[in-house]
Amino acid sequence: MAVLAKMEESFTNARLAYANMMAERDALKRGEVDLKAQIEDMKGHEEEIKAENAALKPQVEDLQATKAWMLSEGATLLAKNIHKGPEMTAAVAVVNNAMSAVGVNSGLHNGYLHALKKKTPYAEVPMLNRNAAEELNAAVACFDSLTFR
Questions:
Q1: Sign of dihedral through CA atoms 125, 123, 109, 116?
Q2: Which candidate among 36, 75, 112, 114 keeps its CA 20 to 30 Å from the CA of 17?
Q3: Quick check: 53 and 104 in contact, CB under 8 A?
Q4: Of 34, 1, 149, which Cα lies nearest the Cα of 82?
Q5: What is the pLDDT of residues 67-103, one digit of tens each?
Q6: Can you tell me the distance from the alpha carbon of 68 to that of 63, in angstroms, rounded to the nearest whole number?
Q7: Helices (H), 70-84
């Protein structure tokens, strides 16, 4: 009887193992079906993505061309426009006028020194701008802090 009990136990264990293997097989088949459905779904998305990619390609090419233009010509055009802009022109004019005043004053100062030899009073020297150096410094400071709109 002990042999029969062992055989029945072995048979029961084999049935349980068989049932477990069948359950695993069924689970794998369900997983396979799910994976096939996902693959088919992805194939549908692949076509959508390819179409979207094809639609975006001209935009990317346009952006690449724009970038190349900005790097090659846009920066030069920007610098030229800033150089010719009213802010730059006005600042350069102020500095130029202040430099002229300093130059005129320097000439007048030398003329005054020459006039001193002839006893001409300093207050009577015509066109002398005693504030020319300060005006030049202010113009240069304005130029250095120049901003563009």
A1: positive
A2: 36
A3: no
A4: 149
A5: 888 888 887 887 787 777 777 778 878 888 888 888 8
A6: 9
A7: 75-84
